[in-house]
Amino acid sequence: MRFSPSLPLSPRAVAWIWRVGIAVALVAGTSGVALQASGELPAWMQDVVSASAIEAALYRLMNMPGLRILYPRPPAESQGELSNLLAKAPADAELYALRAHADGQSLDFVAAEADWKFYVAHAQDGAAADLQLADFYDRRLRPQDEIAALLVVGNAPSPPAEKYMSVQQQRSWQAFARILKVADDQALPLETKVSTYRSWIARYPAEPSIYASLIGLLIQQQKFDEAARTINDYKQSFPKDEVFPLKAAALIEYRRGSDAGALALYESSFRPLWPPELVQSYFSMLGAAHQQRQMLSEAKAKLVTNPDDLAAAARIFYYYQQEGRLDAARSTIDEYRFSKERRKAAWSAEELYTFATLLDGAAQYDEAARYYFALYSASGARESASAQAICLSIATLRLSITGPDISTESFRFGSTRSHLGRNSTRRRNEGCHISIGPRLRSCSRC
Q1: Which domain-ending residue is among 41, 73, 105?
Q2: Distance (Å, rounded) from C-alpha 25 to C-alpha 35?
Q3: Total-model pTM
Q4: Cα(252)–Cα(222) distance, integer angstroms
Q5: What confidence tens digit (pLDDT) does each residue in 334-383 have?
Q6: What's the rounded Cα separation, in Å, for the pair 62 and 3?
């Protein structure tokens, strides 16, 4: 109830209100009912401007001893009063929304649906109005109609107020997420979810997480061919991502029951400097197929046949790294280096950079610096001063982590050649020798 602001309350009225309040509290306390269970006005009836036409349509004055009280009209009366206001202002969207609420209170749901649609047609923010229509369908347990209204919200452009919001906070994004929840709650067909994801992707084409969720759903439902087509769509939209498409394609083969097919995808795409998540996924698949030892044996055999097989050496390194045996992983690279020395074979820039990166990622900074310095001195890097500077800077940084004594005057650009020995790497520049071992110092002539 609402008190009329036009009349002051007499002391007698205040006392009466006080007695009524005490009585209500006693009844609630003895019956075990919380005061919050008392009939509260719905939100759409609370924020009404005082002494306005809308207040007169929703409330009527009732005479009480010593005061006059605004009391909610019965829903049928409110419908009539709001209809009179709409006859005077047929383009007022808020009046349609209020009458739709009144229609619902009087259980006239056909009229309520019509008024909500009128509200959508006249509202300035159509997407917000469609959300209200979707809420109506949710209350009426009409999931298909609710989804149709939410799709309109999802496909609507973002309002200016959402310019600096993350996509997860935007109204359209949340509308699509709500559709999926409705589909789950109502056990709707799979096609409803798939079509929702397709519309979601069309609305947010730069968000890879939507693709990932759709592909995961299709794989879970064993729609492997459609999942494969979606992976191809993902590759076209995100050509720089080499991790997710490979993992998803391998998972499809694995779920089809083809462990060999999944491993074949990893084998054909293997690169010595794979991202860590791909390495972990590859070895997880090897573990699921019980093929870790087989892979290790084959890689060692390839290295015996071709001592310069960089991919085989990287596989062996990753095997021991995933096992947590960093000493064995480091020994793999040492053995590769010893083989080079015995055969007096030349080092390529790719080999030096690969081993420097692998050791760097395994926190073997002293050994990583050894290869960075060799790469800095390699003939392939001489032509680019910027490449030399990058390699030299990385090597210096990595050695500084382990605490060596580095003198910046010791390094000069120019014609150099490198030699990777068992315990040191030497840079020769006009008779000046710099030894890179556990610690780095310049010679006495520098």
Answers
A1: 73
A2: 8
A3: 0.74
A4: 9
A5: 999 999 999 999 999 899 999 989 998 888 888 888 888 888 777 554 45
A6: 10
